[in-house]
Amino acid sequence: MKYPIFFIVLIFNVCCGLQAQSIESLISSGKIIANFTALGGHSEDCIQLSAQNTTSDTLQVWIEAGRRLQAADSTDQDILLVKDIHLKLLPKSKLISKLYGFCCQVHDHSPKKGHLFGVGSLANKGLLRLSKFIASKKFDPSSIQSAIWAISDSLSVSGIGRGMNSENVELIRKVCEIRNIPMPWYETNYGKADSNNLAGKPISVNGAIYFNLHENTTVTVVVKDWNGILVQTLMEDVPKNPGRQALEVEVDVAQLKPGKYKIYVLSDGTNLLLSRDFTL
Q1: Which end of the chain has the least Cβ crowding within 10 Å, N or C?
Q2: Count of domains for the chain
Q3: Total-model pTM
């Protein structure tokens, strides 16, 4: 009988003791000694792993996407790994490898170079799903970080930039699926980060609003808070012809308080055409 190649390789690996094992189980069993050290910063190749094989066997070490490394200093951020790493450790040998991960505690401090981490454990269901998804795709680091914070700290999904060519829409859709919320119609842009909030504070909200006009009219666009108080006028009595309309709106939110807001599109100053919500 002929067997598939993958089946033969699997049997070979198991028989030779080369089946990949989780780094957590290898540490717990004493088969390896491992140190996780911050390289400075909270994203991308920010952790260095130093591992030593204490056995006389070759070990296949698996560092899983979705593993949450626990900061030794409680004021430092934990780091979520988003790439699967497979390492081969020869008997009694040592190795050093960089690990690819991101902060998953937006209000804690970015770990300084040399700060230590524990092996931690696999993250909760939401972060684990997101990590496995990211590991199978290619997104820019800034969008990955925003996506992680949208799960770990419930930051707005609108903070994940869609990208120049909408290349991050798939990532946004996955985060919305995990959180069971609709896709946002807008993007939120953030200012400079500080030590207490690495995401920064919202400075603007922008997006496209589409609607139809059946006659010549004027269009006014205003922003009100959830109590109906006017906070901004974006457009006032601008003449428009009949047909399909596409308005690119941008709201300066730097001075607005956190909460829910509504954009109203009016014809002739008083007739409501449509409204759109956004949240800070």
Answers
A1: N
A2: 2
A3: 0.83
